[in-house]
Each structure stands twice: as C-alpha cells, then as structure tokens.
Design goal:
Elements (H helix, E strand, L loop, with lengths): L11 E4 L5 H7 L3 H10 L4 H6 L13 E6 L7 H12 L5 E6 L8 H16 L7
C-alpha cells in the first residue's frame, strides 16, 4: 500500500501478502485472522478496497519482487499470482517466486538471498547473498 504513495521508491520486496483483502478474509481458514481483519479494518467493500494493494497496483512504479510459499496456510499463493499479474502491466519489472516447500513465513536464508539479489540488481547495491 505504501509503495503506491511513494513514486521515489527504488524497489519493492513483498512476502506472504493478502493483496486482495476481501479474498484473503473470505478464504483464510484462521478465525483469529478473520477476527483481526474485522476489528482492525472492517468488512465493508470500502474497507476492503482501502486496504487492498491489488486495486492500487497501477500506481506502483518501481521494480517488484513477490515471494510466497505454496504451503501458506493463511493466504493462498494465488494472492501473490494475481498481484504479480496486476503489476506486470507496468513498465517496471516484476518477479514472482512461489516456493513449493515454504509456508507462510519464507525461511530467513532464502528470503535474504532472494531479496538481496533482487535489490542488488535493481539498485546497484552489494548486499550479501547469504
């Protein structure tokens, strides 16, 4: 959401997101997460729209890396796939990585290796890959 408001952003790295909050709320099997969404965001169409990055994808202008675990038990990897498709219509590149052996939390070594490599490529930095 913040990336849509920050055109100066150089790169975006995302993991395990609910980019369409209405779908995330509807499909999440965890009642506690659904209660948190109800309490913190509300469940009206307006509330879901205000907190769904998917509807603002066209405003994000930096390169993006989206990582998601295929075994995520909170938010389905289809969330990441739909968001990557929405970002693909822009001039900036987008990379989607669905890890078949990962759950909701991407392992730290894998996350750092992928995120650092992406940032290094797009920002010219030299972050360590391990």
């Amino acid at each position: 959401m913040a990336a849509a408001e920050a055109p100066e952003l150089g790169a975006l790295v995302l993991t395990a997101g609910a980019y369409d909050l209405a779908a995330g709320y509807r499909d999440c099997p965890w009642s506690g997460i659904r209660r948190n969404i109800e309490r913190e965001a509300g469940t009206s169409d307006e509330a879901f729209c205000a907190r769904s990055a998917l509807v603002r994808a066209h405003l994000i202008c930096c390169p993006g890396l989206i990582m998601h675990g295929a075994l995520d038990d909170r938010f389905a990897p289809q969330q990441a796939e739909r968001f990557a498709q929405a970002l693909a219509g822009r001039e900036a590149p987008v990379e989607l990585k669905i890890f078949p052996d990962e759950g909701h939390v991407i392992s730290r070594p894998r996350f750092l290796r992928e995120a650092h490599a992406f940032v290094n490529r797009h920002l010219g930095t030299d972050l360590p890959l391990a």
